């Protein structure tokens, strides 16, 4: 084969080689590519820090000897519905630990319903001032807390009204279902003992309450 013939054959084969290379490149472009996963921002941790206020309602009851005087007369068992308002402030020390203070005022139908067979006593209102400390879980939205503090209330014995001082303690759980709203359930044991009136020496009862709180944007 002469050089002229070899050159002619190479030039004829060039278009086929070019087309083959282009087809291979196109096939490579059609091969599946790795897609990076979409970025999802982590859910922000809820903060309990701030001022709040709300309403509560529940039920209270005592044992049969919860209201006794120094001469042995029993006030019998008192029970009834209670309800009131609360205001407080929380401070979140970390994503897990929360501390705070709370004051509440309660009123209701807490009295002896068997006054025919025992002394007629009632507790028309009382209030507490308590410290709270708790552990937050589930992005800090679920708070398990303990609470304790002072209590004061008005004890009625027939026509006599007496202011009683004492203490209260308990615990509960609170769930922040919206950024500014939370719901709670709690138990409190309350005992009034110390005053300057010598005739009554004890008044104690248990209460279970549910409530709602609204959080303000103050002092956060």
3D structure, described in words:
By secondary structure, this protein is mainly beta. Helices cover 12% and strands 56% of the residues. It is built from one helix and ten strands; from the N terminus they run αββββββββββ. The protein has one helix at 3-29, and strands spanning 50-61, 67-69, 78-92, 97-108, 111-112, 121-137, 142-157, 160-175, 181-194, 200-215. The radius of gyration is 37 Å and the shape is elongated. It starts with a helix and ends in a 5-residue tail after the last strand. The mean pLDDT is 80.
- How are the strands ordered across the major sheet? 1-3-4-6-7-8-9-10
Q: What's the helical proportion of residues?
A: 10-25%
Structural class comes to mainly beta
Report the total helices: 1
Strand fraction equals over 45%
The Cα radius of gyration reads 37 Å
Q: Count structural domains.
A: 1
Query: What's the CATH architecture name?
Result: Beta Barrel
List key phrases describing it:
220 residues; mainly beta; Porin; 1 helix; 12% helix
How are the SSEs placed, and which strands pair?
Blueprint: H1 3-29, E1 50-61, E2 67-69, E3 78-92, E4 97-108, E5 111-112, E6 121-137, E7 142-157, E8 160-175, E9 181-194, E10 200-215
Antiparallel strand pairs: 1-3, 1-10, 2-10, 3-4, 3-5, 4-6, 6-7, 7-8, 8-9, 9-10
């Amino acid at each position: 084969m002469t050089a002229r013939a070899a050159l002619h054959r190479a030039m004829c084969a060039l278009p086929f080689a070019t087309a083959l290379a282009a087809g291979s490149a196109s096939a490579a472009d059609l091969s599946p590519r790795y897609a990076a996963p979409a970025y999802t921002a982590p859910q922000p941790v809820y903060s309990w820090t701030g001022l709040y206020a709300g309403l509560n309602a529940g039920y209270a009851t005592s044992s049969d000897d919860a209201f006794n005087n120094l001469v042995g007369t029993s006030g019998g068992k008192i029970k009834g519905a209670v309800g009131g308002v609360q205001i407080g402030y929380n401070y979140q020390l970390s994503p897990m630990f929360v501390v705070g203070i709370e004051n509440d005022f309660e009123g209701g139908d807490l009295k002896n319903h068997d006054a025919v067979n025992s002394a007629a006593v009632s507790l028309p209102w009382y209030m507490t001032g308590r410290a709270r400390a708790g552990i937050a879980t589930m992005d800090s939205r679920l708070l398990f807390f303990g609470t304790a503090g002072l209590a004061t209330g008005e004890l009625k014995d027939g026509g006599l009204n007496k202011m009683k001082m004492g203490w209260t303690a308990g615990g509960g759980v609170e769930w922040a279902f919206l950024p500014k709203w939370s719901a709670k359930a709690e138990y409190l044991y309350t005992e009034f003992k110390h005053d300057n009136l010598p005739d009554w020496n004890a008044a104690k009862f248990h209460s279970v309450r549910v409530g709602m709180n609204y959080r303000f944007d103050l002092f956060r």
